[in-house]
């Protein structure tokens, strides 16, 4: 599952950041790294962009970048 497929109001854990070179580095510089918890705050009406909470700040990410981030839904008790 990727960040693009995530549902609003749920918590997820980053499993892998795909991409190469500067694009992957830019995503990781925003704080999106393996095993980081993400909360999906909002999704724009047409699905682009996605607003998330990560590492105590809000971040808005484009759909193309969200497709590169593999996530897994957190179960109750993990948070």
Give the second-level CATH assignment, the architecture.
Answer: Roll
Count up the domains: 1
Say which CATH homologous superfamily is assigned.
Answer: Ferrous iron transport protein A (FeoA)
Q: Give the DSSP E fraction (strand runs of 2 or more residues).
A: 35-45%
The helix content, as a percent range, equals 10-25%
Quaternary state of the chains: single chain
Biggest β-sheet, characterized?
5 strands, antiparallel
CATH topology: SH3 type barrels
Low-confidence stretches: none
Going by helix content, strand content and strand pairing, the class is: alpha+beta
Strands in their spatial order, largest beta sheet: 4-3-2-1-5
Give the integer mean of the pLDDT values: 89
Query: What is the element string, with H for helices and E for strands?
Result: EHEEEHE
Could you characterize the architecture of this molecule?
- The structure is a single chain.
- By secondary structure, this protein is an alpha+beta fold.
- It has one domain (3-73): SH3 type barrels.
- 16% of the residues lie in helices and 37% in strands.
- The chain has a five-stranded antiparallel sheet.
- A hairpin with a 6-residue loop joins strand 2 (37-43) and strand 3 (50-54).
- The mean pLDDT is 89.
């Amino acid at each position: 599952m990727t960040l693009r497929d995530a549902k609003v109001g749920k918590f997820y854990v980053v499993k892998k950041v795909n991409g190469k070179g500067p694009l992957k580095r830019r995503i990781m510089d925003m704080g999106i790294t393996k095993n980081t918890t993400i909360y999906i705050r909002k999704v724009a009406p047409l699905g682009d962009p996605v607003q998330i909470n990560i590492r105590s700040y809000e971040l808005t990410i484009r759909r193309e970048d969200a497709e590169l981030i593999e996530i897994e839904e957190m179960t109750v008790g993990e948070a």
